[in-house]
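Entry type: protein chain
Record version: 2
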Amino acid sequence: MRLTGIIDYTMDNFLCIRGFAPMLQLAEISKADENIQRDLIEDHRGDMEAFLSDGKFTFFPEVILGTNMEGSDSDIDKINLLREEVRAERGLKKIVINDIKYTIKRNAVKKENNDLSFDVTLTVIMEFEKSSIIGKEFLRIDGNHRLSAVNEQSSYSDKRIPYCLLLFRDNMETDKFCRALFYNINAKQISLKMEHNLKVIIESEQAFDDDTLKNSFGFNYFLTRKIVKTVDFDKFPFVKMLVGENTFTYFVDVFELLLKKNLIKKCDEDINIILDVISKIDEALKKALIAGTPKCLAIIGAFTYYVLSDEDKANKFLKWAQRNSLIDISELHICDVIDIYDKIYNNAPKKIFMSMWFNKKTEDTYKEVKDVKKIVKEKYNVEIEIIKVDEHKDGYSDFISKRIIEGIDNCDLLIADLSYGNKNVHHEIGYAQGKGKKVLLLYHIRDDVNSTDEIGSNLSMHDQLRFSTYGELREGLLEKIKDCFALEK
């Protein structure tokens, strides 16, 4: 196997070889430095593979490798000789160090306007058997994901890429400088903000037309271009406040998520779905009194997702974010926020507001509701909290109307017993209906009682469970609860 390049000292500091080589060749003779490299991110590797396979705009900086030249004590003098010859800009016909043969050729060109001085370049050929470096492969300081994405079946395996191979004198120097260089590469550089990177691509319609944007970068980039040219954010001040100067980042992330969740399709017209909900999002942010806070794209991005996917979650999400001060954290990712909230939401007690006539005649009905609560806990490990305003235990009195409003606002389901035609129950159903809450109506069929006398005709749109015996109520209510909260059958 052979590597070729130019050998020299960089910044008069590290001896290194810079050249070009096929990706697969570099991948086969190198490995991740376990002391410094993070674990491979499979999604990142998949994205890298797709990027490399596409073949368009596939430029990236050189892969940086390091190697310990010393294999035995006999190599020390040879390493010093090689370093001295390079420092003195002299050639070296052949020298073998740690089973690798180095051949260095001196190339001199007279400097412009000075015949007595020369610009010197030293080219090097490294030759070795691939089997000879098993166990002492070159260490990957930067570029691990790129090299990990290539294999013999890759369409880009023979594509040549730039590399830099740092030549260290011994094991101590290898470990010390690999760590220092990894730190400098990843911590010292000041990267451009994502917003600026996205803006450079999306706004450049001459360089990247719509088809190029769709096919080379992603449909979410194209939709972002379309909507940024359409939306007047001055009409949506609360959205503008949170998105601020990160418009491109917000829409690229949101559209990527919505496409992945199949909430929108890959068609131009689906930007209208976002346009339709922006005013709703802005109004919700206004009601939540989110003002004067740092910009948190993940929160507004997740809220956008919930507005389109689950209205009940959307109604509770902002309160949860504010209650836990997440609105003040800038370094959040939209998918992480959604994953965390979904788990909390799914594991939180399901709240049922019990609307009924508080009378001995309804005690058995309520007992069956509580028994179903126990069954759900035992069988499905799902906690149900029943809100019944005559059972508050917080030690102080309050207006019952306030408790009713707060209870319905916070519930996931309102169960209303229409038996005996209590007018307060009808009022509570109407309020829950206006708040967009799920409503389940119960009715006890009794002899010599006409149900139409107790159930208003305008309630027919709600789910109803009519029962003659309490056994029927228990069995039917359990099925209704399972359907409502999507419990396993």
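Comment: Confidence is low (pLDDT under 50) at residues 392-397.
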